[in-house]
Amino acid sequence: MMNRRHMANTRCGLASMACAVAVLAGAPSAVGAVALEDIDTQERRARSQREAKWRDDQRAQPSVRLGSAPPADFHRTDLPAEGDCFPITGIVLDGAPGHGFDFARRYLRSYVGRCMGHDGVNLVVRRVSDLIIDRGFVTTRVGLAPQDIHTGVLRLTLVPGTVRAIRFAPGSASGFWRTALPSRAGGLLNLRDIEQGLEQFKRVPSQDVTIDIAPGDLPGESDLVVSISRTRPWHVVASLDDTGSRSTGRLQGGVQLGLDNPLRINDVLTLGYNHAVSPGRGRGTRGNSANYTVPLGNGSATVSLYDYHYHQTVVGSQQIFVSSGKSRSVDLTLQRLLHRTAYGKTSLEFRVGKRLAHNFIEGTELASQKRHVTTAELALVQRQYVGRAQVDLRVARRQGVSALGGQRDAANLPAGVPTFQYRMGILDASLTLPFSVGGAPLQWTSEFRAQHSGDVLYASEFITVGGRYSVRGFDGEQNLAGEKGWYWRNTLSAPLGALPAAAYIGIDGGHVGGPSIKALPDKTLRGAFVGVRGAAGPLNFDVFAGWAGKGGRALQTARPATGFQLVYQY
User: Fold this and answer.
1) 147 half-sphere exposure, CB direction, 13 A CA radius
2) Domain 86-158, CATH 3.10.20.310 — does that match?
3) Which of 127, 317, 341, 454 has a 20 to 30 Å separation from 148 between CA atoms?
4) Residue 496 CA to chain centroid, in angstroms?
């Protein structure tokens, strides 16, 4: 609380004090943790935590691969030399519906003009069949009808594999499969659609699903038989960690309630609350969150809401006052699968977000710190499997817009002034590679994040480097932040024998830049860390210690920078 008698003895009234704090809080700062943390700094801290959790969740999402096709040589077009062969002037694929098998027709054209005999024709039939199976059409067959090849035209017959019906297995729990499964009765049966459907089903934590292919009555027809088993449709997660700041409360506690299938459409609703565990007098934080996701066959829709409040006591040279702030954000994310193979998938993602933020001094709002910001983001997302490695890549373009009440820049905005209508490029990439050395299982995880903008940004849009969610080895009380930058995180982990735990070590690095921090002499950080994570029944734990390397002299940080997280799941 503020010392009222002290304030009465000073010549500085609340209005002038608010102006001074507004200047301090509004100026972009390379070092993001000072005695006074404004709502932009607090929001960056909370957003970094949310984004890190989101990236972890994305990498850990169910991934279904129903086996690769057997080794095939359809990428080859050579033919055996045969004495009794006939020149082929055209190849016709009869029975292929619509444009679903145009890829097979294009492949067959590569054999036109060749001389084929008995073995060559059979080889072409086998290769095009393998190609079709590799594309996921596992119940589609290609045959060779009796014909006179002397005409120069080779005619192949395709029997398309179709879905006769989609039904639940006897004894299975029932449900609404249409939101999860892209397949429809009467359509082509494709293994990639089944994989997509299984992933959508399995994103519901309490639900496990299998899909079997049962033969139908007619050639090419099959039924998809869905078996669903469910456990308790709700779960509670409680957490305790030291992710907060000293100015508002280092220890943070949270509780999260997950509701599975609330509308019976394979949807998931998550409600969360977190706060400073021991805020003390004159400081503290609290936040609320809600997240709702519904699958849409080859896509999904997610609505996320976040509400955050903080307050802190600031000791000035002449008075003590309370600074506080609140922010609220709403995001809508739509994702659509563009392409899927046995080795990867490509998706398009569109996100629109609205953020409201307010800063206060002794309950009086700082008008210059009010934020009503709208952003739109378009991203291309790729997941690829290379051997045992999983590679995730996300390339995004984000832009500040004036839609939905977003703030507009003032007319004739001077150069060097932050803009609400900014443009930004974002890159997220990660590699997860399990391997073994001398029979010991190891895993290397590498994460890279970069942000670039040629505009002058408000501090809330800066990329932050330094702390457990970017460059480890720093405690996060101070960090580097700027309009553009990157960080690279590398972790090597190994299980601790038969214990349900793993030890990990690693080295991180990062760099920031941009017009707001041109005068900063050192813009690069590097740190190392070591830790242990594991589980004891329903309790998961993570403890670590890090040491600042390059940049450690520029930022004040604990040595070592330690941290922990406890998560109890029920």
Assistant:
1) 16
2) yes
3) 127
4) 29
Using an 8 Å Cβ cutoff, are 510 and 484 in contact?
no
Going 491 to 496 to 497 to 500, the CA torsion angle's sign is negative
3-state SS assignment for residue 76: coil
Among 369, 300, 306, 284, smallest CA distance to 334 is for 300
Model pLDDT, residue 283? 86
**Could you state, in order of their start, the residue ranges of all structural domains in the chain?**
4-60+232-569, 86-158, 162-230
| Among 239, 334, 339, 335, CA closest to 289 | 239
Task: Answer whether residue 5 shows pLDDT above 60.
Answer: no
- In this prediction, residues 196-204 reach a mean pLDDT of 97
What gap in Å lies between CA 407 and CA 320, rounded to an integer? 33
| Cα torsion 418, 419, 420, 425: sign | negative
> What pLDDT does 4 receive?
34
φ and ψ at 548, to 5 degrees?
A: -70, 135
Q: Give 414's DSSP letter.
A: P
| Closest among 226, 227, 222 to 187, alpha carbons compared | 222
- Three-class DSSP labels, 326-345: EEEEEEEEEEEEEEEECCEE
**Which phi and psi (to 5°) does residue 116 adopt?**
-120, 140
Topology of domain 4-60+232-569, CATH:
Porin (2.40.160)
Residue in the block written with tokens 């935590």? 49
DSSP letter string, 360-399: EETTEE-GGG-EEEEEEEEEEEEEEEETTEEEEEEEEEEE
Domains 86-158 and 162-230 share a fold: yes
CATH class of the domain defined by 162-230: alpha beta
Asked whether the predicted pLDDT for residue 452 surpasses 50, the reply is yes
CA distances from 131 to 104, 108, 142, 143 (A): 7, 11, 11, 14
Residue 38 confidence class, pLDDT cut points 50, 70, 90: low
Q: Given the structure tokens 């073994």, which residue do they identify? A: 436
Q: What is the pTM of this model?
A: 0.88
